[in-house]
Amino acid sequence: MDIVNLYPLSNYTFGTKDPMYEKDRTVESRFNRMREDFEKYGMRHSVEGVLLVHEHNLPHLLLLQLGEPSSPLYLWLTEAPCYAGPSPSGTTFFKLPSGELQMGETETEGMLRIVNNTLGREDGMKTDWKVRDVVSNWWRPNFEAPQYPYIPAHCTRPKEHKRLFLLQLPEKALFSVPRNYKLVAAPLFELYDNSAGYGPVIASLPQVLSRFNFVYI
Amino acid sequence: MANTADDWLYNDDLDVSLPGRGRLDTDSQTLDGEDLLDDMLTAPSSATLRTDTPTNDDELLGPISHDTTDTIIEDSGSARYNADRKARTIQARIDANLTSQGVAMMHGGLSIFSREPNRKNSFYIGNMNWWTTDLHVIATVKDHGLGDVVCLKFFENRANGQSKGYCLVEVASESLAQNAPDKLGNIEIHDRKLMIAHALRISPHQFESKCNQAKEQGTTPVFSSNSLSSSPGQLLGSTGSSGLAKTSTVKTTLPGVIPPLPNPIFPQPPRPPTIPGFPTPPFAGLRPPGLPDFASMGLPGIFPPPFPPIPNASSINPFTSRPGGLPTLPPMPPAALAALGSAGAAVGSDVTKLTAPHLNPAFLQDMSQSGANMAEMLAHAAARFRSQTAAFSSMSVSGGRASPGDRGKSLPNHPSDEEVSETNQRNKAISSSAITRAMSDAQAGDYESAIDTLRMAITLIKQSVTANSEASQIMIQSLQDCLQGMEQQQQSSNASKRYRSSGGGMGGGGGGGGREHLSSRHIHETMKDRERDHRDLRDMREMREMRDIRDVRDFRDDRAMRSGHKISKHHRDRSRERRR
Fold first, then answer.
1. In chain B, which residue's Cα lies nearest the Cα of A78?
2. Is there a contact between B222 and A13 if contact means CB atoms under 8 Å apart?
């Protein structure tokens, strides 16, 4: 039985750092770069990190929220619609800390590198994350948005393979959040059956994480 | 790794108060309340298990006691000691099943969840946080002098199981329930002032609206770049779900308290009424070979498997007790119609307005047995059918909405609306055609067959699914009047032939006129009432559908499925799950 320790949200403190922009600013450029990379290097390997805390004896998932709020920052909490896609009053979007593996890098190394880049502290001290299990796999059969938790039968060359890892957080930590993101803690019931709001990858996490025995410390 | 958390389940030393695996609650029951936690930690059962199977050396434990929650000694030389103690704490939690997969068994009496609270002794507690647990509620109720909770029901979002923040609590007596608002009115749980209400029907709605409001304004835990100025490490707000995803708000505003409306269309296998003296196969066998296009049905229901029609009755295609309003009337093979010609058109036209002429072929067969003129019968039916087709095609559609309940009667076998309306229409057809037939027979002097016809019709209607409905009763009554008249006529065979074949009841002698007029008007009025009922019911049903969004979605998915549209697997799974 996999036992994972979760700590309350209050154990963690949050700071800010410089904005971290994605390599591809537009959807089109993203897929173009994917095509070029595919020709050079083959299938892209991505990793994403699942970071969990707990509140009220329920696991909460840390998500990065990206997007243009339509109203002043202190009001966006209640007003910004949070579809994973275009919406009338602004585009906002949730994602996990993620990135692409580099050549020759193992998954664990890559995961730690990415999560330190995204949320790691800048004052030289290292956050003691531990990469635990693979939680799920998703494949992208074409240079398009759809991805599936299996390789479709007709496809022998998926274009991207994404792996989600559960990360064990230390008991206390400081996270530095890039200025262009907000860090959100979403309770699992918020994600459950809500792929309209978060996309299939994140919305399936409650099911996928149910196999763990979380200890609420 | 050994199953440390599970060992207690299989250990024979278990205290009997611990429920077995089969009754595990799926939600974790870790407590925030100090006092309850203390109770837990002193429970002897969880402590004695550890000595059997140490998992690894670091975590060898002795009996658990309160000490595990003591402060950790900060001495530099005792880092390992601290680590040990912390490990023990964690292990203690695991042993005590204060984990996501564990279940805490605080209170005995799990029977409080096993039934619905009795409203008489109950009251609502509302305005709670979504994380306020049942144990908190029980403790609060007890602490404020209301005694033990007999039964408890939380109201939750169907979509994700989240508590709506209110619950229905049953206590030992009505007087205690009446006292509840006084005793608990000013109490707070988790910094939220409780709202207490008596168990009236409208009470849940006020909690629902409150719940929805709270969703709109709830704070979410966000750590934005500018949040350093605001409180960093801001904890989750009251709902924690509001701003995060709009769709969840939409979902959670579904009124969960409104009891799921019974789907008026019960998918049921068709049940042909049993007719004494008739072999059921011919009746049941008459499903039309070409069933109408399912896609255009647009109704969630299962359809009867098409039975092969028997040869002699293939000319008539009645729809007997089929769930599904028919957009088109039963297709009559043109050959049959041609054969029948337009004989008897005049006879049928002034008969009361009929909807789709659902002829009972068994009935027709009986006619042949009793020497009736089947061709004439069919001619009547065909003529009526043709003359009424256009006018009543829409009737059939709306006719599928009558609910037997509206008639104030409850049928033991709960037929679907469509079955009911089909049956009613058929009964109407039977009665009018029987009367016409009988009259023409009587006019021809053949009282025997006329009486038989009428008797047959009465039996058929009585046997039908809607036998208890008003309309059927009226029909039976008029048929019986007719029958009596017929018998009288038979007796006084020097019939004065005063009866008019207006399709109404028969009257002997002079007094028949008024009565027959009355009963024909009866039938006429019944028709009109039915039409109006159909319309009303259809509107009502549409309203109900719109209200319950989930049903509409199911409805659409089923329709899509049946019409062969590809619905995404996700949606299909969702609806499958919902239906389960």
1. B243
2. no
